[in-house]
Amino acid sequence: MCDLKRLAEIAKRVRYNTLYMITKAGSGHPGGSLSAVDIMVTLYFNVMRYKVEDPFWEDRDRFILSKGHACPALYAIFYELGIIKKEELDTLRKPGSRLQGHPDIKKLPWAEFSSGSLGQGLSFAVGVALAGKMDKKDYYTFVLIGDGESQEGQIWEAAMSARKFKLNNLIGITDRNGLQIDGETESIMPIDPLAYKWRAFGWNVLEIDGHNFSQIISAIEKAKENKESPTMIIAHTIKGKGVSFMENVVDFHGKAPSSKEWEIASVELGGDSIE
Amino acid sequence: MRDVYGETLLELGKIYPNLIVLDADVSKSTKTISFAKTFPDRFFDVGIAEANLMGISAGIASTGKIVFASTFSVFASGRAYDQVRQSIAYPNRNVKIVATHCGVSAGEDGAMHQAFEDIALMRSISNMRVIAPSDGVETRKVIKKIVEIPGPFYLRLARPATPVIFDESYEFELGKGTILREGKDGVIIACGVMTYIALEATEILLKDGIDIGVVNMSSIKPIDAELISILSKNYRYIFSCEDHNIIGGLGSAIAEVLPPTEARLIRIGINDEFGDSGKFEELLKFYKLDSSSIAERIKEVILNDRI
Ligand SMILES: Cc1ncc(C[n+]2csc(CCOP(=O)(O)OP(=O)(O)O)c2C)c(N)n1
Ligand SMILES: [Mg+2]
User: Fold this and answer.
1) Least buried of A70, A80, A193, B122, by fewest C-beta within 10 Å?
2) Predicted confidence (pLDDT) at residue A214 exceeds the cutoff of 70
3) What's the pTM?
4) What is the ipTM of this complex?
5) Which of A93, A99, A148 faces B48 most closely, judged by CB atoms?
6) Residue B221 and residue B116 in one domain
7) Using CA atoms, how far apart are residues B23 and B53, in angstroms rounded to an integer?
8) pLDDT of A68 over the 70 cut
9) Cα Rg, chain A, nearest whole Å
10) Pocket of ligand 1, candidates B23, B25, B32, B159: which has the most ligand atoms within 8 Å of its Cβ, to mutate?
11) Which of B75, B281, B244, B275 is nearest to B161 (CA)?
């Protein structure tokens, strides 16, 4: 379990490698990857129980990246864990690579779920958590969804079922960065008041700053205390976090930085101190 | 193709005051955004909600309007399949589903974004007509044609810009294929991006003394059964060519109307597998759908048969 200082160091490297991979690939989704880094780093390096050498270990906590386009961040974390080799960072989005454009469990079972079609991860997570109850396992299931993704009807079908099955072993996190592809969530298809919606569906709801490690940790601790219901942590984040010209810029949802932009970004992400 | 779609929608928007366009958070990619900017009152972005997209489109169409609904082909055909079937096709609603990023053209996004099944899914729905134009000119002609024909259509557009095949004098006719090149040893029937690749393949084959014709069959449903029947009499080999699973796509559609014949049908496409990440051209090679791989395959078939 890493302390806050270590988490910050890891997150810094993860941001750097995330953007490095996307730049090298020439395509990908920097905005939503960078907004989710701190949440995912906290889960993998402070919260979750797992064995790197055995992705199928039955008692592992599960992390499901429902907003699959943020997978470069996941791959950068897998690199930290030694699952991915350094050379592989250059193969993102190339034919045959384990680092597919969206997570592919046939190539990389640690990813838990082949996402990419938005709105499907929460139902899968409900199934995993429900099976955990049936098998009397004490693992937790974490699932990260996008705020735009929350417009999919299936999210709310899953929301109802998680409550019905009293899945207090299910912890959802919404990456509330306020943006989707076509613009701001609140102008494309409003999802607010988001916390009220989840509460109305019977979930325990917490709102935090999604870039604050101690808030993320304590929210998860609180979620685990709940005996009745699933928890949704609404994590307020900044899309493109860490790169000045990407922050809150909708165009960097699905656009790789140019080599010039990478020069600037890599410095901002602390490039000189990495390697 | 996508850019042409955006431009043509703009043109049509001026002519048809009852033309409505819907998208599901991918308007910059499908290019419906240009219509959205010019006709904001007739454009609706429903957010990331493809089932809702199709349902709302059906409802709007029920009041006598022409609706164009766009998203990526994998979601238009798969995610919203039931809504397309029940709300659009069954009541024969005037909804034109224009799906972009079809087949391998979804590229680096990988398997989850690459629809290799959309022709099969859409083709098997009664009332639904399926068109896969082969270049920008044809895309424009098709859109202008189908806006005049009531009822549902599924238009399958590729992501990358493709070489121009047709000149402006070309007229698209529903249910008609176009002979682009006559040959002697066999004929390729292709659709979508595979048409220009097929043309390239024939050039390669000519160097080996193999003379292959090319037919563009953008109208997959209804298909040109009459032309296929003629081709089966004139050619010993028919090669279907598509960036789609060979199960259920263009090749299957051809097989369904092929009369009892001496001709052999060889289906070239995705061999019943899921996609992979890569650039469009890389993936064509990966799946042996680039011009040299296709030429190689055809050569092999023909030479082996001669022995
Ligand atoms: C079912 C489905 N529809 C559309 C898309 C295309 N798409 C990819 S990312 C995205 C926007 C996602 O927005 P959000 O969930 O807010 O993600 P984030 O802002 O965290 O990147 C869309 C529409 C998709 N991947 N899946
Ligand atoms: Mg978002």
Assistant:
1) A193
2) yes
3) 0.95
4) 0.93
5) A148
6) no
7) 7
8) yes
9) 17
10) B25
11) B281
